[in-house]
Amino acid sequence: MEKTFVMIKPDGVRKGLVGEVIHRFEARGLDIEALKLIRLSRKEAEELYSIHRGKDFFEELVNFVLSGPVVVMVLSGEGAVNVVRKMMGTTNPKDAEPGTIRGDFALEITENIVHGADSEESAEREIPIFFGGLDT
User: Distances from the Cα of 132 to the Cαs of 61, 68, 70, 104, 121, in angstroms?
Assistant: First the structure.
């Protein structure tokens, strides 16, 4: 089974969408391997978004995920990375299809409810940031 990393961002937590987002993943048939509510450290946030270091929006993105608690989780299932990406919708919620998490609950590109690994390699890099030695 493939594993992926998902984070419900501060806006998702603030809007009370944690249960809804988790329910959607579980209803689709994905399994929760690990889950916790945390406040990210600057080091964790910068490591998570390290692929965007040097881009105009890097600081804004890091500061946003530091603005409140987040829920981090590892989900597993057949094709988990692609399934989660489709369920989340496009990064810009204004372009996201209705029925997706971002299409249903977000309007801004930074405050777009969820982050999900964009590939198996990204999941393998992101999971240990928050779950240490969890077997990827």
Answer: 23, 22, 17, 32, 16
Q: pLDDT tens digits, residue range 70-129?
A: 999 999 999 999 999 999 999 999 999 999 999 999 999 989 999 999 999 999 999 999
Interatomic CA distance for residues 115 and 120, integer angstroms = 14
Which residue numbers are catalytic?
Answer: 115
Domain count of the fold of the chain: 1
CATH of the domain at 38: 3.30.70.141
On whether residue 102 sits in a domain, the answer given is yes
pLDDT tens, 7-61?
Answer: 999 999 999 999 999 999 999 999 999 999 999 999 999 999 999 999 999 999 9
**31-38: strand order across its sheet:** 31-38, 70-77, 2-8, 114-116
Per the domain annotation, does 136 fall within a domain?
no
Rounded distance between C-alpha atoms, residue 41 and residue 62, angstroms: 10
Is residue 48 one of the residues assigned to a domain?
Answer: yes
Closest to 123 measured CA to CA, from 70, 65, 82, 68:
82
